[in-house]
Each structure stands twice: as C-alpha cells, then as structure tokens.
Amino acid sequence: MLNLARTLGIGIAVILLSVAARAETVKLVTLEYPPYEYQAGDKADGIAVRIVEEAFKKMGKDVSIQVLPWKRALHMTKTGEADAIFTAYKNDERVKFLDYSETVLMPQVLSVWVKKGSEVAFDGSMDSIASADIGLVDGISYGATVDDAIKSGTLKSLDYAPESSNNIKKLMGGRIDAVIMNKYGAMHHLKQQNGLDQVVELQPEISSVPSYIAFSKANNLAGMRDELDGVLQEMIASGEYQSIIDAYFAE
Q1: Residue 182's pLDDT band (cuts 50, 70, 90)
Q2: Do 181 and 237 belong to one domain?
Q3: What is the extent of the structural domain holding 92?
C-alpha cells in the first residue's frame, strides 16, 4: 500500500507539473506577413517574431506562436483561445477585447526607394516626385497622402505590378525611377534579390503607422502586458531591439 501511495503521489506530482508548465506557455497568434512574421518550416520566424520571443524569454516565459489567417487569429484572441496577437493596428473595435501594449512593437513605415546614385529627390511632398516613374502594387491602399496624390493626378507616371517583388526587380533593372513601399517589406525583397547594397531609402519617410502586440481581455493579462512593455522599452533603449532587426537582414 505504501508503494502504491508513493507511486500515485509521484504520478499526481508529474501531472501537476505538466499542467503548470502548460499554464506558463503563452499562446501567441500572428499572420503571414514577411519579413515581420511568417511560417518557416515548422516554426514562426521574422523580425517581429524574434523580438517577441526574446522579450518573453527575458520575462522567463515560454511562448508558442501560430501563423494563421488574420480573421481567425483575431477571433481566437477575442475569445481567449489565444493570449495575445501581433502585429496589430489599434482601432476602436479592437480595444473592446484587446489590451494593447503602450510600446510600439513595429512601426509600419512607408518610404520612397530609389537606386543608389538616382537623381530623384524627396522632400516629404508628393510634388517633389511628381515627374518620377513610380512603381506601385495594383489594388493596394498606401494611406491618405499617397492615395490622394494618385487620385488628384499629382503623381503622373505610375507603373503598377501585381506584387511588391516585381517592383523591386523593375527598380533594380532601371525600368522605373522609384518605388513606394513599406520599409522592412522593401528590405525583405531586396535581400531576396541581393539588392540591399543597390537601393536606398529616401528621407523623410512618407508615413509611419504603429502596430502592437495586444493581449486578450478575456484572459485578464493586463499585468503581463505591462511587464512586456517594460522589457520592450529596455530592449529599445539598449539597442538590442535594433540589433535583432539588423542581424536578420545580415543573414
């Protein structure tokens, strides 16, 4: 009987430890959006994924990250099936069920890109690039500044392509003067086409929209959100945040 009790006790302890371990794993969801986050074989990867993983590691928490269709990821976070979602824009509807980080996880920067040595100059006004042949992706909204310039005819020579990668290829081949593109998206395609040393981003940026990691209110994780905020701020201040991004593009 004593041996049976001891065996049962050990079994119960193992089960409890297993449950505790599972409880410590934070379930995160995201979307397929390279280079920020994407499925790479049997795991998630990307610059946002690496930053998030490192931040939670500093907090002593294990994470699981699923790359899912965006609507499904949002629904899972709303119901509490997932603990948090990234990289999410903030709007009035989402704040009803999500606790957003105060710290911006990823600024979505829109910029003008040209070949090195190009005579195209950008001063922040769409008028300054009005005569340039500009590559855009068909059917995409670029935000009010660019969309209004297209609608008004300020941007006079537009070359549309089905994918961003096509525009990078045309830019490198000298078939267009410039592309308007998400900063890290452009760097992603340039990296794939061995063009990081051939193309430059013009300053100033056109716009920057913040995106965040946001926690499920259903799971009462505001405390975890606050802890993560502190860690992210420390990573940014120390330069570690930018180092992770730089290392990704240097691979």
Answers
A1: very high
A2: no
A3: 2-106+211-250
Instruction: Annotate the chain with three-state secondary structure.
Output: CHHHHHHHHHHHHHHHHHHHHHHHCEEEEECCECCCEEEECCEEECHHHHHHHHHHHHCCCCEEEEECCHHHHHHHHHHCCCCEEEEECCCCCHHHCEEECCCCCEEEEEEEEEECCCCCCCCCCHHHHCCCEEEEECCCCCCHHHHHHHHHCCCCEEEEECCHHHHHHHHHCCCCCEEEEEHHHHHHHHHHCCCCCCEEEEEEEEEEEEEEEEEEHHHCCHHHHHHHHHHHHHHHHHCHHHHHHHHHHHC
- Same domain for 157 and 169? yes
pLDDT tens digits along 112-126: 999 999 999 999 999
**Per-residue pLDDT tens over the stretch 10-38:** 554 444 444 444 457 999 999 999 999 99
Q: What CATH number is given to the structural domain containing 138?
A: 3.40.190.10
Global pTM reads 0.83
Query: Do 64 and 124 belong to one domain?
Result: no
Structural domains in the chain (count): 2
Residues 225 and 199 in one domain: no
